[in-house]
UniProtKB/TrEMBL annotation:
Belongs to the ComF/GntX family. This is ComF family protein. InterPro entries: ComF/GntX_DNA_util-trans, PRTase-like, PRTase_dom. CDD domains: PRTases_typeI.
Amino acid sequence: MKVYIRSLINQFIPVPCLLCGVSTTFDCRICVPCQKNLPAFKLACHSCGLPVPSLDVHCCGQCLAKPSPISRTVCGFSYQFPVDKLIVQFKYHQQLGIGETLSHLLAFKIRQLYQGDSLPEQLIPVPMFPKRLASRGFNQAEIISKQLSKYLNIPVNNQSCKRVIDTKPQEGLNARQRQKNLQNAFKRINHVPPHVAIVDDVITTGATISALVETLSATDVTRIDVWSLARTPAN
């Protein structure tokens, strides 16, 4: 029934592409030509998500020198124009439909990359501190997780961890400051299965992800993947 309704919407109610304005679908409001022009890393390190030079290189030099407990990182796009502007609209201007569209495209990429590999048993959105959640009105990582859950049939666990410290915003902080800012910021409160994926909107230095990975690694989790809409290119 839902598929039929969406088909009717697509047929009778034109949905303009978010980038060029031509008619596109209700499910993905970025047309195919514009999708092909979105910035992305063609080949990426399995650990940190930054570019690698060839298909047979799974980890970048930095991750080889300092191994991470992260098994696989998948980022939909590079955090550059127009993806950066779209995510700002989603995150700070209540444009939830943009987040749903980018999540749809991320889910498609995950399906492609996980062929022959096992998908996580649960999705864990990066938690927000209650005061900040009340101020924004939604957790963008949870919105993304719910969309990925719908497309990939993986349950969302938003009760496994909580943010126990109201850290100051990460914007403007360097990598070391970000890491210090997030020390002991998260706490596990419920059971999680052996294989999970942490979900966030943007990975910048990876400090937030690392703090949450450390929290989960202290439990009986044996594999942690990371999924995000975008990854900031290395400086």
